[in-house]
């Protein structure tokens, strides 16, 4: 074989035999979402990222039309798929863009899941069918300007006034906030047991506003907002009856982190596939860049990190489908996937050289997005401490 000749290349998924580990139903989900991204999303990503604007309602309708929204929930118009199938959908969504996956994750695994898991039957009937189709969009108000990794210190308050609740406070970094129809807001209560409680807040309620946050360098193909609650009056029926204390919102975050595991690896896969195609075509001193040893060692290491992450993700998916997945195991996956994905994106950028900093290629867009994925829904350090506590028996968060 001459230096300029080459055998057909394998994708990282082919190298690890990922497809052979999936059921027929899971393959259908993967291909459906992959085709949807190719048709309705990928052609527009450069424009959306550059402008910082995204047609959320049109996308929500398209995603609801194929059953993506709340797809792993049962009933109320939801598709009722397996957890692994949902993970694979997140994988394909984030292979397009992290912001696209965030739209679906916040809708299904945060806003819809909170109502599904903790809501009254009336709340479920009112919101879940419309959210499943994309007619109604939800957001999830937990993080505050000064309380991210320590949500238990939140300053948002819910105070009794007769049979009503009055909510006052501010939430920050809320995906879908300014385009939502309903927000799940978590607040400290002074007149109810168990402290923190969740409320279903229609955004048309007087005193509620959601100014959009601009000037982002990450997740630009995503709507991010502040939530401002100024004496928002809600009936008693707005409270999520089954959520008492911090365990409620934290269980929602665990649900969303599961999708992030698969999603971050989708961004890594797209970086790898883009880079492999690029170095095979890029000529350097009369040889393809792919034919140099240093290029191949970089690709080999990245493919290994990606493949191990996918095997872990699929293992966690099987555990979740069996009802055996524990929160600390989700931390294993979130820590590994987000950390390895951003390392892969950065390394791929070096192989693309100057082309890697343009929007013509998706690699730096993925890298910028993964800066947010690395820190939201539990920073790497928080997940390290969760795992450390499990390994040693000692809590070292303070």
UniProtKB/TrEMBL annotation:
<dbReference type="GO" id="GO:0033539">
    <property type="term" value="P:fatty acid beta-oxidation using acyl-CoA dehydrogenase"/>
</dbReference>
<dbReference type="InterPro" id="IPR046373">
    <property type="entry name" value="Acyl-CoA_Oxase/DH_mid-dom_sf"/>
</dbReference>
<keyword id="KW-0285">Flavoprotein</keyword>
<dbReference type="InterPro" id="IPR036250">
    <property type="entry name" value="AcylCo_DH-like_C"/>
</dbReference>
<dbReference type="GO" id="GO:0050660">
    <property type="term" value="F:flavin adenine dinucleotide binding"/>
</dbReference>
<feature type="domain" description="Acyl-CoA oxidase/dehydrogenase middle">
    <location>
        <begin position="139"/>
        <end position="232"/>
    </location>
</feature>
<dbReference type="InterPro" id="IPR009075">
    <property type="entry name" value="AcylCo_DH/oxidase_C"/>
</dbReference>
<dbReference type="InterPro" id="IPR037069">
    <property type="entry name" value="AcylCoA_DH/ox_N_sf"/>
</dbReference>
<protein>
    <submittedName>
        <fullName>Glutaryl-CoA dehydrogenase, mitochondrial</fullName>
        <ecNumber>1.3.99.7</ecNumber>
    </submittedName>
</protein>
<dbReference type="InterPro" id="IPR052033">
    <property type="entry name" value="Glutaryl-CoA_DH_mitochondrial"/>
</dbReference>
<dbReference type="GO" id="GO:0004361">
    <property type="term" value="F:glutaryl-CoA dehydrogenase activity"/>
</dbReference>
<comment type="similarity">
    <text>Belongs to the acyl-CoA dehydrogenase family.</text>
</comment>
<dbReference type="GO" id="GO:0046949">
    <property type="term" value="P:fatty-acyl-CoA biosynthetic process"/>
</dbReference>
<keyword id="KW-0809">Transit peptide</keyword>
<keyword id="KW-0560">Oxidoreductase</keyword>
<keyword id="KW-0274">FAD</keyword>
<dbReference type="Pfam" id="PF02771">
    <property type="entry name" value="Acyl-CoA_dh_N"/>
</dbReference>
<feature type="domain" description="Acyl-CoA dehydrogenase/oxidase C-terminal">
    <location>
        <begin position="245"/>
        <end position="391"/>
    </location>
</feature>
<dbReference type="GO" id="GO:0000062">
    <property type="term" value="F:fatty-acyl-CoA binding"/>
</dbReference>
<dbReference type="InterPro" id="IPR006091">
    <property type="entry name" value="Acyl-CoA_Oxase/DH_mid-dom"/>
</dbReference>
<dbReference type="Pfam" id="PF00441">
    <property type="entry name" value="Acyl-CoA_dh_1"/>
</dbReference>
<dbReference type="InterPro" id="IPR013786">
    <property type="entry name" value="AcylCoA_DH/ox_N"/>
</dbReference>
<feature type="domain" description="Acyl-CoA dehydrogenase/oxidase N-terminal">
    <location>
        <begin position="23"/>
        <end position="135"/>
    </location>
</feature>
<dbReference type="InterPro" id="IPR009100">
    <property type="entry name" value="AcylCoA_DH/oxidase_NM_dom_sf"/>
</dbReference>
<dbReference type="Pfam" id="PF02770">
    <property type="entry name" value="Acyl-CoA_dh_M"/>
</dbReference>
């Amino acid at each position: 074989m001459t230096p300029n000749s080459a055998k057909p290349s394998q994708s990282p998924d082919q190298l690890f035999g990922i497809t052979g580990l999936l059921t027929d139903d899971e393959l259908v989900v993967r291909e459906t979402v992959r085709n949807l991204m190719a048709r309705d999303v990928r052609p527009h990503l450069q424009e959306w990222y550059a402008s910082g604007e995204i047609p959320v309602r049109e996308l929500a309708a398209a995603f609801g039309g194929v059953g993506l929204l709340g797809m792993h929930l049962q009933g109320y118009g939801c598709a009722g798929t397996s957890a692994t199938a949902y993970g694979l959908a997140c994988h394909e969504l984030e292979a397009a863009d992290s912001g696209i996956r965030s739209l679906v994750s916040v809708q299904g695994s945060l806003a819809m899941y909170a109502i599904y898991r903790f809501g009254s039957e009336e709340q479920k009937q009112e919101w879940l069918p419309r959210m499943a189709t994309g007619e109604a969009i939800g957001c999830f108000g937990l993080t505050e300007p000064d309380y991210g990794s320590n949500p238990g210190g939140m300053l948002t308050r819910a105070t009794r006034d007769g049979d009503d609740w009055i909510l006052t406070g501010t939430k920050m970094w809320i995906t879908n906030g300014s385009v939502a129809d309903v927000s799940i807001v978590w607040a400290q209560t002074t007149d109810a047991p168990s402290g923190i409680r969740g409320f279903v807040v229609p955004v048309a309620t007087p005193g509620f506003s959601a100014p959009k946050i601009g000037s982002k360098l990450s997740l630009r193909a995503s709507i991010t907002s502040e939530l401002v609650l100024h004496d928002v009056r809600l009936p008693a029926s707005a409270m999520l009856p089954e959520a008492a204390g911090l365990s409620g919102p934290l269980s929602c975050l665990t649900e969303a982190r599961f999708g992030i595991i698969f999603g971050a690896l989708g961004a890594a896969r797209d970086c790898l596939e883009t880079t492999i195609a690029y170095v095979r075509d890029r000529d350097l001193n009369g040889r393809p860049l792919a034919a140099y040893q240093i290029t191949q060692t970089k690709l080999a290491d990245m493919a290994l990190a990606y493949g191990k992450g996918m095997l872990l993700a699929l293992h966690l998916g099987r555990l979740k489908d069996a009802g055996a997945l524990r929160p600390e195991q989700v931390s294993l996956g979130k820590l590994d996937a987000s950390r390895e994905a951003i390392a892969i994106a950065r390394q791929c950028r070096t192989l693309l050289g100057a082309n890697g900093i343009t929007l013509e290629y998706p690699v730096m867009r993925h890298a910028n997005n993964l800066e947010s994925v690395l820190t939201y829904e539990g920073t790497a350090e928080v997940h390290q401490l969760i795992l450390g506590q499990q390994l040693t028996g000692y809590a070292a968060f303070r």
